[in-house]
Amino acid sequence: MVTPQFAIPPEFQADLNYVESLDTRSDEEIISSIDTYTPVTSEEKKYIWAFWHSGVKSMPGWCARNVVSWARLSGPSWTIRELDSIPDSPNYVL
To answer: Which domain of life does this protein belong to (predicted)?
Structure first.
């Protein structure tokens, strides 16, 4: 999915610029990869950690869009890890 490019209003053009997505996967692919447990390794040195009590797939749309934008802006060199408080979840915080 290509992120739409919006026009920046003239009064903000000096302060803002459009940044191309570094991760071109679909929103669903990104959410699925965040929801899938993978062990922490020493080779991956850059992590973004997050917590959502009921899991990433149950986030309200505006929260999920924020998390997806982290992946798009950070790119594949970062790993996003979302912890939750669902006892049966592989991403269970405890």
So the answer is: Eukaryota
